[in-house]
Design a protein that fits this description.
- InterPro entries: CAP10, O-Glucosyltr/Glycosyltrsf_90.
- One of its GO terms (molecular function) is transferase activity.
- This is Glycosyl transferase family 90-domain-containing protein.
- Keywords: Membrane, Transferase, Transmembrane, Transmembrane helix.
- By secondary structure, the protein is of the alpha/beta class.
- Among the domains are: about 150 residues, no CATH class; about 150 residues, Glycogen Phosphorylase B (Rossmann fold), CATH 3.40.50.
- It has 16 helices and eleven strands.
- Strands 7-6-8-9-10 form a five-stranded parallel beta sheet. Strands 3-1-2-11 form a four-stranded antiparallel beta sheet. A two-stranded parallel sheet has the order 4-5.
- Helix 12 links the parallel strand 8 and strand 9.
- Helix 6 packs parallel to helix 15.
């Protein structure tokens, strides 16, 4: 009896040790799958990786096709003012000084998130000084004032060079739009806080009045602003957005759409969103149309320049730990952007159209399960693919992502913000010149 009991105890210890060991191996495999940036994770393990921040109960739907179809017919109230003017690419796309009426006529739909944010804060009784005081200024944030045509920086918080460059890039974009304004000194005085972090919850901006780079549909208190990349992006020496666009135009000048590589290209860091990005890797693996590879920034493994991406007919787009700033660069190519259903919204996303005559990108499921079918359809219908690519160019590269559109957006943001934040600047104790450093 004593020997039997000892055997049972030994068996229990063995089972316990095996269980602990198995749990340890499982935890290590999950950790490895989430943190590896190499294509060395089996598809089965990819299925086991938790979605984490990529969990999406419902992706964002953009229904703004009417914003594009109405380009040819401005509202009747504007016809008198616009009798001799309409937006022309090649003449107006670099004009940072378009009037408010010209901006509204040239870029319908671009200001949707501003209007949404204004309506939200009107329904909440406007933004008060207390609302602004309750916003903690954390790393990656800045507070500034626009008054009498000048920009004053009240405070910034930065952790490392990356924060500093992005904050300076955002302030540079604001100052550029302000300097080019045809009515610079007539802009209302506003005080605002912005964050250059990828996500609203990277800083304490949830339910607060903050300008941000991207948001989920449920994050309604924030308002979107153009990202720092329009000024410059120091990563891999990409430089100003306009410089990248010109390089792409030059590279595509002698490359017809029909002569592009009939493949889907994507490069990216897998650990930014392992479940999402590895799903694309697994679905495209071994497909004749697939050129999908991981990117190791430290070693430049599988690196492709922005111009090199444009050699392909199809360019994949995948969100990272939040939005992916690379979308605007992909939209600069005369190629078909193929993106999963998006969870994060940027300021220009309302112009994305996934079907119909104005279609300017191809949308697939978030797990890419329908990607092979969509690619087969596109490859069998090259004329349809070229139509989508041309629509993308007309919508984004030649209109909504131009310097003129960016400047118009900034000024519309200031006007909209002034509608709901007049209480913040009314009867302030000290003038802006005493509270902040003027930015020139």
């Amino acid at each position: 009896m004593h020997r039997s009991w000892n055997s049972w105890c030994s068996l229990r210890r063995m089972i316990f040790a095996v269980t602990i060991g198995a749990c340890g191996v499982f935890i290590y495999l999950i950790w490895f799958g989430m943190n590896s940036d190499r294509d060395n994770v089996p598809p089965l393990l990819t299925q086991l990786i938790p979605a984490g921040h990529c969990t999406c109960q419902s992706s964002t739907s953009f229904q703004c096709a009417d914003c594009l179809t109405c380009l040819a017919s401005p509202p009747p109230s504007e016809l008198e003012h616009l009798a001799t003017w309409s937006f022309q690419y090649g003449r107006d796309d670099q004009n940072l000084g378009l009037s408010q009426i010209q901006c509204q006529a040239a870029f319908p739909g671009l200001f949707h998130d501003i209007q949404r944010g204004v309506e939200y804060w009107k329904s909440r009784g406007l933004i008060s000084r207390d609302d602004m005081r309750m916003v903690p200024l954390e790393d990656g944030m800045a507070r500034a004032i626009i008054s009498n045509g000048d920009l004053y920086v009240v405070a910034t918080r930065a952790k490392g060079d990356d924060h500093r460059r992005k904050i300076l890039g955002t302030l540079g974009s604001i100052h550029r739009a302000l300097s080019a304004s045809p009515n610079r000194t007539l802009h209302p005085t506003i005080e605002f806080i912005f964050s250059i972090e990828d996500r609203v919850d990277d800083v304490d901006a949830v339910n607060h009045p903050v300008w941000v780079l991207s948001r989920k549909a449920s994050e309604k208190s924030v308002i979107l602003m153009p990202d720092f990349g329009y000024w410059s992006w120091a990563k891999s020496n990409i430089g100003p957005y306009g410089q990248v666009v010109q390089s792409i135009i030059d590279a595509e000048s002698n490359l017809k759409f029909a002569d592009k590589e009939k493949k889907l290209v994507w490069r990216g860091k897998l650990s930014f969103a392992p479940k999402l990005r590895r799903a694309l890797l697994d679905v495209a693996r071994g497909k004749p149309w697939g050129d999908v590879k991981e990117l190791d920034w430290s070693k430049k493994t599988n690196f492709l320049s922005m111009e090199d991406h444009c050699r392909y007919m199809f360019i994949g787009h995948v969100e990272g730990r939040a939005y992916s700033a690379s979308l605007k660069y992909r939209q600069a190519c005369r190629s078909v952007v193929v993106a999963h259903k998006l969870q994060y919204i940027q300021h220009h996303h309302y112009l994305l159209v996934s079907s119909g005559p104005e279609q300017n990108y191809v949308e697939v499921e978030r797990d890419f399960s329908d990607l092979p079918k969509r690619m087969d359809e596109l490859l069998k219908n090259p004329e349809e693919a070229e139509r989508i690519a041309n629509n993308s160019i007309k919508t984004f590269r030649e209109r909504y992502l131009t310097p003129a559109a960016e400047a118009c957006y900034w000024r519309a943001l200031w006007e909209g913000w002034a509608e709901v934040s007049a209480n913040v600047t009314h009867d302030t104790e000290r003038p802006p010149v005493d509270r902040g450093l003027r930015s020139d």
